[in-house]
Design a protein that fits this description.
Blueprint: E1 3-11, H1 17-25, E2 29-33, E3 40-47, E4 52-58, H2 70-79, E5 90-96, H3 100-111, E6 117-122, H4 124-129, E7 132-134, H5 136-143, E8 147-149, H6 158-175, H7 188-197, H8 203-212, H9 220-232, H10 237-259, E9 260-262, H11 271-279, H12 284-325, H13 330-347, H14 350-366, H15 368-382, H16 390-395, H17 400-405, H18 413-422, H19 432-442, E10 447-448, E11 452-453, H20 454-477, H21 501-535, H22 539-555, H23 560-573, H24 576-588, H25 595-603, H26 610-618, H27 628-638, H28 650-662, H29 667-677, H30 681-705
Parallel strand pairs: 1-4, 1-5, 5-6, 6-8
Antiparallel strand pairs: 2-3, 3-4, 7-9, 10-11
Helix pairs in contact: 3-10, 5-10, 7-8, 7-9, 12-13, 12-14, 13-21, 14-21, 18-20, 19-27, 19-28, 20-28, 21-29, 22-23, 24-25, 25-26, 28-30, 29-30
C-alpha cells in the first residue's frame, strides 16, 4: 500500500531551498496562490520509495518564527498549523552550511515546535571555500534531528534525504528531540494555562499562541480566554521574545564550538567579495548596472523579435488558409478574426515572457539581482518604492505583462501594488509601431552635429517621459494607498554562482503557462467583444454598403482589391465600433483627433500596435509595390478634415504620441493586473488614472502647439 506525505520545505532566503524543491519534484509542480495573499504556493510531487510518495510545499523563505512581511506570515501560519489548506506531516528544513550560525536560529525554533524535522544541509562546498569544516554527526547529535548534507545542483545526497524522511516520519514518536531551549521557563504559568486549552501544544508553540493568537483561526471565546491569561500572569511578549533569542544564541554558540572548525581565522578573500568591490562601487557600480540593464532590455527586444514575427506570420498563414476554405459567413469571420486573432494575441507575448523571465532567472541565479536591488533602493524609496521595484520597471520597456508578473518578489504589499500600478507607464515594445509612424509623420528628419537624429531624440524623450511620469505617479499614490505593513528592505547578498540552466528553462515554461491559462482567458473574451463591435452595425446600413460594393466589383473586377479595402473601411466606419468613434469624437477633438483616430483608440485597446492596422484599413492602403508603412504614411500625411486642414500636424501628432505614452490601451495588462491583485478594483483605478493623465497631458500639448 502506498502512503502519501505532505512535507513543508522551509529555510532562510538564499539557502538553496528552491534548488532542492526543483530537484525533488522536477516538472511535477503546480503554482497557485495562498488564500488571501498574492504569494506563490508552489507544490510538487516526489516519489520517496516504492511505498511512499510526498507532496512538497515550498514555503516562502523566512529568517525566524517572528514574521514581519506577508510572505513570512504565510510560512508562519503553515508551520503553526493554522492554514486549513496546507497541513504538513513533517518539515524538511534547509540550512546553509556557509551561514550556519544565522540559520540555526530558525532551525532551533522549528525543532521546538515538535513536528518531525529533517535538516538538509546545503552549501557545504561554499563553507569549505570559507575555511569552515562542519562535523555533521555532532551537529545532528546536538540538534537531536537527522542532518543530511546535500547538493541539489549536482544531485548529491538526494537519495539519502528521501530515505531519512521516511525513517523520521515512521519513528518520530520514539525519537522526538528534546527542547532546544527551556521554553517552559520563559513564561511558565501563562504557558501551562494555555496548554490546558490546547493540550497538544509544545511549550514553545504555547508562547506563539500567547503572542499571535489574534491572527489564528480561534473562536472569540478562546481569544478572550487567552487575553485573560496574559493579563492575569502579566505576560510580556517583547520581553519573552528577547529572552528566547538570547537563550537560543547561547545554545547556538555552544553547538558551533562543538561541531564547527574554522581552518583559517583570517577572513578569506572570496571571489564574491572581489566582485562586489567593483559591482557595488559608488561610481562603477551604477555604470555597470546601466550597461547590464541596457543589454537585458536589448536582448529581450532582439531575441523576441524573430519568434514573435514567426508566430504572427504563422497565424497569418493559418488565417489566410481558413479564409480560402471556409464559406463567407459570419461564423467564419468570428473564427478567423475573433478566435484565431485572440489566440494570436496571446501567443505573441510568450517569447517576451519566456525570454525576460529566463534572463531574470540567470541574474537571480548568478547573485547579481540582489545587487541591482541594493544599488537602486535609495532612488526608488523616494517615490514610495524600494530596490526590488527596478526590475519590473525596466522589464516594462519590453512588455508590461511579464514585468507586472515579476513584481511578485516584492514582499511589501504597498510597494508591490505601487510597482504594478506604474509599470504600464514604461514604454513597451508594443508602442514602437505607433511611435515610429507618428514620429515619421510630424517630426522632420534632421541631423544635429552631424549624427544626432531629431527623430531618434524624440523617441528617446518619449521613453524618458514615461519613466519620469511613473516615478511621479508613484510618489503621489504613496500618500493614498494606506498600509499598516511596515516597509523592510532586508537584503542578503548571496555569493556569485554559475546559473542553473535547468532552473531557467523550467521558470520560462512555468511563467508562459501561467500567462496562457490565466490572463489568456480574459484576453480571449475581450478579443471576441472587440470583434463583434468592429464587425456588426445597423443591419440596413451594412446591407446597403455590401450591396453597393458588390455591384461595383462586378462592374470593375480589375479594381476588386481597392474596392474591397474601401468596402472594409466603410463597414468599419458604420460598425458599432465606428459609431463609438463618432460618438467620442466631440470628447477627443480638443486633443486634435478625428473620428478615425477615435476608432483606432478603441480597437488598439486590444493591443497598441493594432493602431497601425486600423489606420491601414481606414485609409484603404493598397497592395502596391511600395512599402505598406510608407504608403500608409503618405495616406495619413494627406488626410484632411472637413474644413480642409491637415489631420496630422505637429500639435496633433505630439498629442497622440503623448496619449500613447500614458494611456493604458492594453487589455493584456489589465488582465494580468486583475490576476495579480485578485480584484477588478485596481485595474479599473489604473485604467482610469492613466486615461485621465493621458487626456490631460495630450490636451495641454495640443492646445499649446496648435
Amino acid at each position: 500500500m502506498t502512503s502519501k506525505l505532505n512535507i513543508a520545505l522551509v529555510g532562510n532566503p538564499n539557502s538553496g531551498k528552491s534548488s532542492l524543491f526543483n530537484e525533488l519534484t522536477g516538472l511535477k509542480q503546480k503554482v497557485g496562490n495562498f488564500p488571501g495573499v498574492t504569494v506563490d504556493k508552489k507544490t510538487g510531487q516526489s516519489k520517496l520509495s516504492d511505498q511512499h510518495t510526498a507532496n512538497f510545499i515550498d514555503l516562502p523563505g523566512t529568517y525566524s518564527l517572528y514574521p514581519k512581511r506577508a510572505d513570512e506570515w504565510v510560512s508562519y501560519k503553515v508551520l503553526m498549523q493554522q492554514d486549513s489548506d496546507v497541513y504538513p506531516d513533517m518539515i524538511v528544513l534547509v540550512v546553509d552550511a556557509s551561514n550556519l550560525r544565522r540559520n540555526l536560529l530558525f532551525c532551533s525554533q522549528i525543532i521546538d515546535l515538535k513536528i518531525p524535522v529533517v535538516v538538509a544541509l546545503t552549501m557545504m562546498d561554499v563553507a569549505k571555500q570559507k575555511g569552515i569544516k562542519i562535523d555533521v554527526d555532532i551537529l545532528s547529535s546536538e540538534l537531536g534531528v537527522p542532518v543530511i548534507p546535500i547538493n541539489p545542483r549536482k544531485q548529491k545526497g538526494i537519495a539519502e534525504l528521501k530515505k531519512e524522511i521516511i525513517q523520521t516520519i515512521l519513528h518520530f514518536e520514539k525519537t522526538a528531540p528534546a527542547e532546544f531551549i527551556y521554553s517552559s521557563m520563559l513564561a511558565p504559568k501563562a504557558i501551562d494555562e494555555t496548554k490546558k486549552i490546547f493540550p497538544e501544544l509544545s511549550n514553545y508553540k504555547g508562547i506563539h499562541y500567547l503572542i499571535n493568537h489574534e491572527t489564528f483561526s480561534l473562536s472569540k471565546e478562546v481569544n478572550e480566554e487567552i487575553i485573560k491569561i496574559k493579563s492575569e500572569y502579566k505576560f510580556n511578549a517583547t520581553k519573552t521574545q528577547a529572552e528566547e533569542i538570547m537563550q537560543r544564541y547561547a545554545r547556538i554558540k555552544h553547538i558551533m564550538s562543538m561541531c564547527v572548525e574554522e581552518t583559517s581565522m583570517e577572513e578569506q578573500s572570496m571571489l564574491s567579495e572581489k566582485l562586489d568591490k567593483i559591482l557595488l562601487h559608488q561610481k562603477w557600480g551604477y555604470i555597470i548596472l546601466l550597461t547590464v540593464l541596457f543589454f537585458l532590455f536589448q536582448s529581450v527586444f532582439w531575441l523576441a523579435t524573430y519568434p514573435m514575427d514567426l508566430i504572427e506570420s504563422t497565424f497569418g498563414k493559418i488565417a489566410g488558409w481558413f479564409t480560402q476554405i471556409l464559406p463567407t459567413v459570419w461564423y467564419s469571420d468570428l473564427f478567423i478574426n475573433g478566435f484565431l486573432a485572440g489566440i494570436s494575441g496571446i501567443m505573441v507575448f510568450i517569447p517576451q515572457i519566456m525570454i525576460l523571465f529566463g534572463l531574470i532567472t540567470l541574474l537571480e541565479d548568478s547573485g547579481y539581482m540582489a545587487r541591482i536591488s541594493f544599488l537602486t533602493d535609495k532612488l526608488m524609496r523616494k517615490s514610495g518604492l524600494n530596490g526590488k521595484s527596478v526590475m519590473p520597471m525596466i522589464s516594462g520597456y519590453a512588455c508590461a505583462v511579464p514585468a507586472i508578473m515579476s513584481a511578485r518578489n516584492i514582499e511589501n504589499k504597498k510597494e508591490r501594488l505601487l510597482t504594478i500600478m506604474i509599470t504600464p507607464l514604461m514604454s513597451c515594445s508594443a508602442r514602437l509601431p505607433v511611435y515610429t509612424i507618428l514620429i515619421s509623420l510630424v517630426i522632420p528628419s534632421k541631423l544635429y552635429l552631424g549624427f544626432i537624429s531629431l527623430q531618434g531624440l524624440v523617441m528617446m524623450l518619449l521613453y524618458l517621459f514615461g519613466t519620469v511620469m511613473a516615478l511621479l505617479v508613484a510618489w503621489v499614490m504613496k500618500w493614498f494607498i494606506k498600509s499598516t505593513e511596515r516597509s523592510f528592505f532586508i537584503l542578503e547578498l548571496p555569493i556569485y554562482r554559475s546559473p542553473r540552466w535547468k532552473n531557467m528553462f523550467y521558470t520560462m515554461y512555468e511563467k508562459a503557462r501561467i500567462f496562457v491559462f490565466d490572463a489568456g482567458k480574459v484576453i480571449m473574451i475581450i478579443s471576441l467583444i472587440l470583434w463583434a463591435l468592429s464587425s456588426f452595425g445597423p443591419p440596413q446600413k451594412m446591407d446597403s454598403i455590401n450591396k453597393s460594393y458588390s455591384e461595383q466589383i462586378k462592374l470593375h473586377p480589375e479594381n476588386s482589391k481597392i474596392l474591397i479595402k474601401e468596402k472594409n473601411a466603410q463597414m468599419l466606419q458604420h460598425s458599432f465600433a465606428g459609431y463609438l468613434g463618432k460618438a467620442i469624437e466631440p470628447a477627443i477633438s480638443p486633443l486634435g483627433y478625428d473620428w478615425k483616430i477615435g476608432i483606432a483608440l478603441i480597437t488598439s485597446f486590444a493591443a497598441r500596435e493594432v493602431f497601425v492596422g486600423t489606420m491601414a484599413t481606414l485609409y484603404s492602403v493598397g497592395d502596391g509595390d511600395d512599402n505598406n508603412n510608407s504608403t500608409l504614411r503618405n495616406k495619413m500625411n494627406m488626410a484632411v478634415r472637413e474644413d480642409g486642414t491637415k489631420v496630422y500636424t505637429l500639435a496633433s501628432g505630439l498629442s497622440l504620441l503623448i496619449f500613447y505614452v500614458l494611456a493604458m490601451q492594453c487589455m493584456s495588462t489589465i488582465a494580468v493586473v486583475k490576476r495579480e491583485t485578485r480584484s477588478w478594483k485596481w485595474p479599473m483605478i489604473q485604467l482610469s488614472y492613466m486615461t485621465a493623465l493621458a487626456y490631460l497631458c495630450s490636451f495641454i500639448i495640443y492646445q499649446l502647439l496648435k
